[in-house]
């Protein structure tokens, strides 16, 4: 489990990814500065959450990695749009760096023209290789049910920071690539992940750093 000293020396303390650190918005080919409110923070929670878990609160577009003593590291995320967000309790059963991406059957059924290149004979019929243009970004955590079924839900990166803080995805939670790399290194396989319902607020908290 991370302690405060590790957090402060790992480059996550508030300000180290601040307004002076622009993120390349690849899709629009220009620089974009993440707002200060989207910077990671170590916070003190007002409720009891077990340490070593991931909790996503869609109402505040926030993901918490819980620490000891009701502390947590809070990241800003983009979430699933409309009814594509699926609340529940899941588990990280796999992790990938620069993962290959294959859209689900439901995604191809909803938007067949958008996923034509993934059909037999298309350039990505075997999936899109990892890379800066890949929708899963630099890292991905794969979420499974308690019985071991792949949900096809992911916590992953994105090269488009403008999608943070909005309902945008097909159900997954996304962080900017620089931040998902940090989360990836902290969260081990087997971690419990709670995707909370869209109704209601997340935990009140005070900023530690």
Give an overview in words.
11% of the residues lie in helices and 32% in strands. It has one domain (4-99, 134-207): L,D-transpeptidase catalytic domain-like (Beta Barrel). It has helices at residues 4-9, 105-110, 177-186; strands spanning 23-25, 30-32, 41-45, 54-57, 62-66, 71-76, 79-80, 88-97, 139-144, 150-158, 167-169, 173-176, 192-195, 205-207. With 209 residues, it is mainly beta. The protein is built from 3 helices and 14 strands. The model is unreliable at 1-26 (pLDDT under 50).
Low-confidence stretches: 1-26
* Average pLDDT reading: 83
* Biggest sheet descriptor: 10 strands, mixed
CATH class: Mainly Beta
Name given to the CATH architecture? Beta Barrel
Structural class: mainly beta
**Helix proportion range:** 10-25%
Give the overall silhouette: globular
Q: What is the number of E strands? A: 14
Q: List the total number of helices.
A: 3
* CATH overall fold name: L,D-transpeptidase catalytic domain-like
- Strand neighbour order, sheet with most strands: 12-10-9-8-13-4-5-6-3-14
Provide the fold topology:
Elements: H1 4-9, E1 23-25, E2 30-32, E3 41-45, E4 54-57, E5 62-66, E6 71-76, E7 79-80, E8 88-97, H2 105-110, E9 139-144, E10 150-158, E11 167-169, E12 173-176, H3 177-186, E13 192-195, E14 205-207
Parallel strand pairs: 4-13, 7-11, 10-12
Antiparallel strand pairs: 1-2, 3-6, 3-14, 4-5, 5-6, 8-9, 8-13, 9-10
For the structure shown, list the relevant keywords.
209 residues; mainly beta; 14 strands; 32% strand; disordered N terminus
């Amino acid at each position: 489990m991370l302690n405060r000293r590790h957090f402060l020396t790992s480059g996550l303390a508030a300000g180290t990814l601040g307004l002076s650190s622009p993120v390349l918005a690849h899709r629009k080919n220009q620089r974009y500065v993440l707002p200060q409110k989207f910077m990671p923070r170590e916070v003190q929670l007002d409720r009891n959450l077990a340490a070593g878990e991931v909790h996503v609160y869609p109402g505040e577009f926030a993901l918490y990695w819980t620490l000891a003593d009701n502390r947590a590291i809070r990241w800003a995320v983009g979430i699933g749009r409309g009814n594509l967000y699926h609340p529940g309790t899941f588990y990280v059963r796999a992790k990938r760096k620069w993962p290959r991406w294959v859209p689900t059957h439901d995604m191809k059924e909803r938007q067949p023209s958008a996923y034509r290149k993934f059909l037999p004979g298309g350039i990505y019929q075997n999936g899109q290789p990892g890379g800066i243009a890949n929708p899963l970004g630099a890292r991905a955590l794969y979420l499974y049910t308690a019985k071991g079924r792949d949900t096809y839900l992911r916590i992953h990166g994105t090269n488009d920071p403008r999608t943070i803080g909005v309902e945008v995805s097909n159900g997954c939670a996304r962080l900017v690539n620089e931040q998902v790399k940090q989360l990836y290194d902290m969260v081990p396989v087997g971690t419990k992940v709670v995707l909370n319902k869209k109704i209601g607020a997340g935990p009140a908290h005070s900023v530690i750093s």
